[in-house]
Every structure is written in structure tokens, then in C-alpha cells.
């Protein structure tokens, strides 16, 4: 989830500025060939993923920032040496060394300056804050609270302890923390693994997932129930987080968004530009009513948006509550054809272009289904950490169409969560190809 207004755009912007610096120094110190510069920029991009050089957060140490960019520029210089050696293009070694030194000096100075600037910005303006509570009281969590209170440059606002023991430091019981978190718009919940039982940790984690809150663990001396944890240090306090969702990384999110824009524009220009008038005419000939069907659905971060489809039913009052079933009398003859071939979903490429949906992602459910199941199925709300898709992993795995039972929804959500937690561009492309194949083969549940 992205919080803080335009802050989600900062990292992609910085990525672009860094690439401009790389290309600038390459042009003036190494080569005038745009092909060579393109390869050098590609080297930088690949290395940034391998080293995670942009995994810099508000609690990151300045020494780590310097270390990350030093490794990045050293490896880039080695790759440049290798590139010119393999291609046989002569470039003086002194030029490559100068390129490395200039880039290291400028980009490291720039990123450290920016990091310090944001720290000062948070102190002066009091903005870009993350509101936190701690569940469980002991020495470790007291140190963490002290870090939050005495380090305003990191932008954490501590709102209280919650524990089931009596203490003047306590804002309420563990059970009371749930309503406090919701009523006070808390962003992150820090949980002591020493003070809480596994069952309490499980309940708190599920609560945070249902309500799109970040949960982290203060690493005491107790064995944790989850294997997928990442270790960070807030000052000297070790903090464990559930493994991050890939698309929480703004760079990966930018890659997916760029793919969505290119793909949706291609479909709109090459296919929908001539297909919409034909389908619209056939829909209007058969039955009265609008060509397009619009319906509110929950999207990323649980925000509502209008989802577009070609109308495949006669206008009816049950469309917001009841999915189409086999031999549904509401479905028109033209509707049966466009539903069976998935042509009814094509207008959603405009949703993709507007940024409300993605080409691939968890399918947006009826609002009534979401309201019914969000408290029934563990981790259900994780599917709302990303944009909904025109197609998805669940759909190509046999779980499309009508949801006839709780088991149907459970299986669909399992595939959705796997997709969210394991996203890659290759996975998206595979899902798209499989979707196209399924359209031509036909599907039993396409009605």
C-alpha cells in the first residue's frame, strides 16, 4: 500500500534522475555512441535489482546508503570494462576510472544530501509521518518507543502501548488496540513476540491484513510462527517484517504500470477502435439499454472505481448482487457470445489506461462478495494491495465465473494471494498468453 500523497512517486523519480546522471557521465567521459550508453544504462538497471540499491527507507543508515551506491558503481565500472573488452572498442582505462570516480562522488553525495533533506523536511513541516502503536510492553519495546519519540527525523509518530497488564504506560488492552488502530488511522503496528502468545500474534496479524495495516515484530527471544520475515534495525532494536509484496517496490510498480499503459493502448488502437462500433451495434439491435455496463468494484487500497464491460444482460435490479449463472435468463444471445469469448471484458482496457486496473491481477469481485468474504477468509484483503486485473492467475487456473460456494472463493483467493506475493513481469506475460489460449479453447465456466 502507498501512503503519503505523492511520496510513492519519489523513488521512480529518483531512479530516473540517477539514470540521467549515468548517461550524462557516460556521454562526456566514455562514449558518444547512444548504443553504448543504452547498454551502460541497462547495466545500471540490472545491478540495481540485484543489489537492491533502491531499498532505502526512512530508518536506513547513511553508511548503508554509501555502501550500496559504492558497490553499485564499482560493479558498473567492471561491467563497462568487460563490455569494451568483449566488443573490442578502445576506450582508455583512465576514462573508465574517471567515469567511476565522478559517478560515485556525485551520485553518492546527491543521495545522502536528499536523505538528510527529507529528514529535515519531516522535522520542519511535521509531514510525511507514519503513525504507529506497539502491542506488548517490555524493555525492547520501550527502546523502540524511545527511538520513535527521540528521532523525529525518521517521521514516526508513536501513539501508545497496548498490553494486558496494568501499567501507567499502557493506553489499553490488546483487544482495545483493534478499535484504537482503526479510529486513529494507525499505519503500522509493532508487536512484541515475547509478550504475546502465538494465537494473539496470529489474530493481530490477521486483523492488520484485513484492514490493510502494516504489522512488524520486535525480535525478542521467542520463536516466530512465520518463516517469511525480513530483518531491519531501528537504531539498535531488531525489527522483523513480513516479507514485502513485490509491487510495494515503486520501481517494480512502475515497470508494471508502463507495461499496462503500452499493452492497453495497443489493444485500444489496434482492436477496440474498430471492434467497439460492431459490438455496440449488435447489442443495440438485440435489446434496449446502454452499450456499456458500469458497476462499482473495490480496487487497490480498497478504493472504489467504476468497472466497465459490454452489456451482456437485459437491464435488471439484481446485477449488483447476483452473478450470472448457467442458462441465466437475464443473459441475451449476444451476451452469451461475448461472455463465452470474454469480449465483454474488453472495455476494461480503458480502466487499465486510467490507472484503476491492471492487465493482470486479482479479478475485481462484486461488492457484496467482498463484504461477505473479507472477514471469512484469512488474508483476503491482501488481494487489495494491488490493482485488480482483467485476467488473473485464478482465472487461468479454472476459477473464473460464478462463485457457487465458499470453497470456490477460498480457492480463488489462494491463487490471488500467491500472485500478489510472487509477482513478476514474466508471470504476467504467461498469464496473458494462457488467457488467450483459453479463449480459443473455450471454458466450461464462461457463461
From TrEMBL:
The keyword Lipid metabolism does not apply. Residues 256-441 form the Bacterial sugar transferase domain. It is a multi-pass membrane protein. One of its GO terms (cellular component) is membrane. GO terms for molecular function: phosphotransferase activity, for other substituted phosphate groups. Gene3D superfamilies: NAD(P)-binding Rossmann-like Domain (3.40.50.720). Keywords: Membrane, Transferase, Transmembrane, Transmembrane helix. InterPro entries: Bact_transf, EPS_sugar_tfrase, Undecaprenyl-P_gluc_Ptfrase. The chain crosses the membrane at residues 12-31, 37-57, 69-90, 96-118, 261-283. It is found in: Membrane. NCBIfam families: EPS_sugtrans, WcaJ_sugtrans. Belongs to the bacterial sugar transferase family. This is Putative colanic acid biosysnthesis UDP-glucose lipid carrier transferase.
